[in-house]
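Predict both folds.
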Amino acid sequence: MVFADDIVICDESREQVEENLESCHSQRRSAPSEGQWRQRRKEPWQVEDQTQVKEEEQGSRQNEEETVPKGICQTMCPAFELRNRESQNCLHRLEMLPGTEKDRRPKGDPSRTVKEYSRPAAGKDSTKPSDLRPPAVLLKTVCYLIEDVAVSSSFLPWTEVYNFVFDRLRAVKQDMIIQRVSGLDCMEILEQIVHFHITASYRLCGEPLRLYDPSINDAHLQEYLSWLLDCYTTTKGPHPNQEEFQSLGLLYNLGSPHAAQKIMELPERLRKTKSIALALSINRAFLERNPVRLLRLAHNLSSLQMCALHRHLLNCRRDLLLIYSHGYSSRNCRFPLTKLAQLLSLDSSLTAQLCQAYGVEVNKENQVVFSKAAFTEPEQGRLYCKLYHSLVTEKQGHDC
């Protein structure tokens, strides 16, 4: 009997223990986690430290903005540099005061003298506000270099004009970087610089390396172009010239995955604009190695777009001759020279000259005899891209 009572007591105690455990578990579930407990137990000094850190970060940003140099020079060339270059006889003839060109030390014309590029050197302070031109003056300088010098200086060889403008534009870029110029002013400056370098890549094509180096022009153009396209992305619009320069970037870098990706990241309304849609079609024809379609589409480009595309045209025409040499390789097959000239967007004499360079026969009846066995690659340096600029020249004539 006692044993039975003990069993009952044990059962009751067990039920009480289980109830106590459940209440304990519920309290644990409602209790804060370790991270929450730490957050709730934050001491006042910890909260004060976080506030102090945020204030220090904001202050450092403000100090950083205040330490960025701001130019105050209101002329295209700082007065100190103008005096130095006059005394050292380092003025370009495009900068000399009219009537003093033959003097032992010509005078500089303040309205034509432009700050020249100088490499950063140890001990040289290039951040003096008096030597830096603000964005408005930089834009005025670029407009002068492009419109009054590059376009209008017909009495000088254009290679000399190019080298002068190229150097002064590097000085403009240097001032922009030091002052961290951004926004609409930056875009307007970069658009004109990109326009100049693309035109120069076409106009100086084939010049001797001692006068013009296409690889240097290309390196600077790619840098300016990348900077400009990034500005379009980071600066609030609208950007009225974005369509044109996005298409120029793709046409100049035809076949580049990076250039194509830049286009595909654009909003759909931009991708469907006329210039960009045409550039995408040309890029697709290039990737598909369809030179006939590419050259046909190229007739719809503007003169500046043709200047961007022109460096790919010689390889495109080479591909066309190679494809036709395989497709029409037959003893009895004759292809009209005039028809081939039309496909290549060249005149008949240049077409015959190009065929001869690749080993393609043109008979006396002005018929092309294609043969895959006869097709050969010309020696390096034998073909000059400049000789086959007729499509670009024709487009420039129409635009004028």
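Second protein follows, with its predicted structure tokens after the sequence.
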Amino acid sequence: MASINELKDVLKETLEDRGVMQQLRARVRAEIFNALNDQPQDKPQLSMENMIINDLIREYLQYNHYDHSLSVFSPEAGMPEELLDRNFISKKLKIVEDNNSKQLPLLYGLVFGMKKVINQEMNTEPGQQKYKNIFPDNGQINEQKNEFEFQGKKR
């Protein structure tokens, strides 16, 4: 007959193989985080920029099944349960989508777009302006132009 320790080892190995142990660890981390943050702190209201960035990250985490990371990220970021509308985000970020790109997180579209800009930059002639600075000097959002721009200090 198998000893208790052998049964524990087999059970632990089975749970790890099925991914249950990772889920439990992530859930415990999330609960610890929630318990530590149980003291109500007035978090500043999320700006539209932060909501968009957080939604891009959340969509990426969901797409890649990073459920453990997502279980900690969403409560820590103070995000609402509902995602922002994908069309709203792509319009704000000026991402043009086709049928293929609609199957992927918008973050992939941003990376692909940046790769195109970098490739164009590498192919410009010397002395030509390689790229346009998309961040204004004051780093503010310009709603009149319907542009999404970096908010904060220029880096």
